Amino acid sequence: MIYPIYVYGMPVLRKVAQEIDKDYEGLEQLIADMFETMYHGDGIGLAAPQIGKSIRLITIDGSRIETDEEGDPEELRDFKMVIINGHIIEEDGEPWEFNEGCLSIPLVREDVKREPEILLRYQDENFKQYEERFDGVKARVIQHEMDHLNGVLFTDRVSPLRKRLLKNKLKAISKGQTEATYKIRFPKR
């Protein structure tokens, strides 16, 4: 099932998502649906709040990254994962800028600075616990999706000047004045 993507202005995107346990009803199907929804929108990552579910669940498929100036494209081909109850324990290194976009903010791309290395504690779809280090583009994708679980959007991380310049675009998105090649859900007015 392909879910509509919740866009800028939807309250669920600003909430801190709740942890889930192995008894979460329909989890296996939800994970499959999230991958299908992500692929339909040409995304490389999707967090559950983006489909209206305030839970700590993320799907990622790095093989969908077309260009990788900062890393090895071969390495990203196998970068497919499910993150449940994830938390970034450490972020390290000299922040670097990279152009990001988001299914929840259609047609907007901005340069965002993030640390290049992270330590992530999470569970997989079988609730096996991991503490794993990621760097480069992998770290960036995870940081972007983890932000969604904490009520943060990538536009919150741009410079104050860029935020002012984006204000009208974001306001238009929240009013339903945008286009996307995938189903989207706007705030009710």
Sum up the overall morphology in one term: globular
Low-confidence segments, given as residue ranges, are: none
Number of helices: 4
CATH C-level category: Alpha Beta
**Mean of pLDDT:** 94
> Order of strands in the sheet with the most strands?
2-3-4-7-8
Number of domains: 1
Task: Please sum up the structure shown.
With 189 residues, the protein is an alpha+beta fold.
Structural account:
The structure is a single chain. The protein is of the alpha+beta class. It has one domain: Alpha-Beta Complex (Peptide Deformylase), CATH 3.90.45.10. 25% of the residues lie in helices and 30% in strands. The protein is built from four helices and nine strands. The strands form three sheets. It has a five-stranded antiparallel beta sheet with strand order 2-3-4-7-8. Strands 1-9 form a two-stranded parallel ribbon. The chain has a two-stranded antiparallel ribbon with strand order 5-6. The mean pLDDT is 94.
